[in-house]
Design brief:
The chain has helices at residues 2-6, 53-74, 118-131, 141-144, 153-158, 161-165, 177-181, 186-192, 209-223, 227-236, 248-253, 281-284, 290-301, 314-317, 391-405, 412-426; strands spanning 27-29, 39-41, 78-85, 88-96, 111-113, 262-263, 269-270, 287-289, 305-306, 309-310, 339-340, 345-348, 354-362, 366-373, 378-384, 451-454, 461-466, 469-474, 481-489, 492-496, 505-512, 518-523, 533-536. The chain has 537 residues and is α+β, with helices and mostly antiparallel strands. The strands form six sheets. Strands 16-17-18-19-20-21-22-23 form an eight-stranded antiparallel beta barrel. The protein has a seven-stranded antiparallel β-sheet with strand order 4-3-15-14-13-12-11, sandwiched between helices.
């Protein structure tokens, strides 16, 4: 039972842990229409309800204990959880505090950073435009936004909004993310991703925040609005999502907001960071309250209609809920396949019921999860204000476990938390720069390294010396970041990485020429996909 139930949990990308996991387009042949098979998207057919009211009541009654136990076990500062059943909110509660050491309590109106739960919100906004005939899911992104470009001319001309929203453009996971960590804005990042290498178009799945963002911006450009204004106009205002926004400034303006928290090495939590995701807004920049997100889930379960008002046409919204891409084969014959739609993970549980969901994760201090089961007319929202450790997913899984089996049959907090620990460990640097060589080679005179170095992707890098200290400065004009460089071995120095993707110390490896001057420096942390070499100017 443990393996079977646990297999429903999903896989994740580092900064955006996903609930469920993607799915390939399901196509059927309609030979009655033509002699040639015409490929059509098959609908996802929900299994008739298996939960009865008593099962839902029992699981709902268990929620307080599930949440309190998870928070006591992990020390998580705050959490909000809600349940929608048969178009009614039957549970909406806040637990813990907005900020450790401060008196403000979490409530259903507390505003959270939603991280990658922004993606299904974004696909719903685009579905509205599809329903209005402004864009087509299968329209070329470049046709809507002439500035769109990737490294392959064919992909640039042919990549559709559907390709970008289902992560099948070939753009690799993490493309653009390190530019965002350095403080570059959306326009700069989207103008640079055409330097990123591509894997095979439409046959490889790579979870890409800025690929997804490019799809959203193409749609907004077609609508003649900024992404942020478009979201307000077509979704947040008509759906009554009064605190929801894609502007980080709006999140900061709320007094009743959940501050994000990092988990320290001693297991305690601290509100150390802010996380401004405006650059990747369609993929990760939304914020909103539990009450807002429960309205959003009701809209999904209502096929685009909320409180009797059609906000998104049902036939335009439907493609976001069906398989569009297969992220990867099942890990074993006992593991059901997972799929990706447009901003939703699509899967089936052990009873064959369709389950749609998505998680959000900011390593700097946010973890969220939304899951709904159309056949059961049931949805669960869990929002937390702490580093992703699996609690958001575990609370939802535990609720469904109790509804299905009358009790928890799996230690969900321990099981999912273990998966997150493994993923975090896998992100450790290849070289451990905290461990100095026993007999390090000496560095050159520091003047050998100082100067300006160029890079077409990250922009210029300036290395400066001050006495016996060396530093490097890079990032956007007007707001660059300066990193202290510490000698490691020979012409290699270490520096502390920053931002959402930071993973400790990294290396600055200089190559010194015959004239005694460094000709180039490779920053190994920034050299993902071969873009981290800076040449002396």
């Amino acid at each position: 039972m443990l393996v079977s139930a646990a297999s429903r949990i999903l896989c994740c990308a580092r900064v955006a842990v996903l609930c469920g996991i993607g799915l390939a387009s399901v196509l059927v042949a309609d030979r009655a229409v033509s002699e040639e098979a015409k490929l059509l998207e098959a609908p996802v057919s929900p299994v008739p309800p298996l939960f009865d009211q008593a099962a839902i009541d029992k699981a709902t009654a268990a929620l307080d204990g599930i949440v309190e136990g998870a928070m006591k076990r992990t020390g998580l500062p705050g959490l909000a959880v809600g349940i929608v059943y048969k178009d009614k909110v039957i549970y909406a509660e806040g637990f813990g505090v907005r900020e450790v050491g401060q008196p403000g309590k979490i409530d259903p109106d507390t505003v959270f950073l939603l991280a990658s739960v922004s993606k299904p919100i974004a696909s719903t906004i685009i579905a509205h435009l599809v329903g209005e005939g402004v864009v087509d899911w299968h329209g070329a992104a470049k046709g809507y936004n002439p500035a769109f470009a990737l490294s392959d001319p064919y992909v640039t001309e042919n990549a559709t909004i559907a390709d970008l929203m289902s992560h099948r453009s070939g753009l690799r996971t993490g493309s653009g993310d390190l530019l965002e960590d350095l403080g570059f804005d959306r326009d700069y990042i989207l103008s640079q991703i055409d330097q990123q290498p591509l894997d095979p178009f439409r046959s490889t799945y790579h979870y890409s925040n800025f690929g997804y963002t490019a799809g959203g911006i193409a749609a907004a450009t077609a609508a003649g609005k900024s992404w942020e204004d478009l979201a307000d106009t077509v979704l947040f205002t008509p759906a009554g999502m009064s605190t929801a926004s894609f502007r980080h400034a709006d999140y900061l303006a709320h007094k009743d907001r959940a501050h994000i928290h990092a988990r320290l090495k001693d297991g305690t939590w601290a509100a150390k960071f802010d996380r401004n995701a405006d650059a990747e807004a369609p993929a990760g920049g939304a914020s909103g309250s539990l009450n807002d997100m429960l309205r959003f889930v009701r809209l999904q379960l209502g096929d685009g209609t909320l409180d009797g008002k059609e906000i998104v046409k049902a036939d335009a919204l439907a493609p976001s809920h069906v398989p569009q891409m297969i992220p990867g084969p099942p890990r074993s014959v006992a593991t059901p396949a997972g799929f990706y739609g447009f901003g939703w993970n699509v899967s089936h549980d052990d009873e064959g019921r369709v389950r749609l969901g998505h998680s959000g994760a900011f390593e700097l201090g946010t973890a969220t999860n939304v899951t709904f089961m159309p056949g059961e007319d049931l949805g669960i929202v869990v929002l937390t204000n702490g580093t992703p450790i699996g609690v958001a997913e575990a609370v939802g899984a535990a609720f469904l476990d109790v509804a299905q089996n009358g009790k928890q049959t799996v230690d969900w907090v321990g099981f999912v938390g273990g998966i997150f620990d493994q993923m975090r460990a896998a992100e450790a640097p290849e070289v451990d720069y905290t461990k100095l060589p026993a007999e390090p080679k000496p560095a050159q005179d520091l003047a050998a390294y100082t100067g300006r170095y160029g890079n077409s992707y990250y922009g210029p890098l300036t290395v400066a010396g001050d006495g016996d200290q060396l530093s490097m400065t890079m990032g956007p004009q007007g707001a660059p970041t300066t990193f202290a460089l510490t000698h490691f071995d020979g012409d290699t120095f270490s520096f502390e990485t920053i931002g959402e993707n930071a993973n400790g110390l990294a290396g600055a490896i200089f190559t010194v020429g015959e004239d005694g001057k460094a000709e180039k420096v490779v920053l190994d942390y920034y050299d993902r996909n071969g873009l981290g070499t800076f040449e002396r100017e």
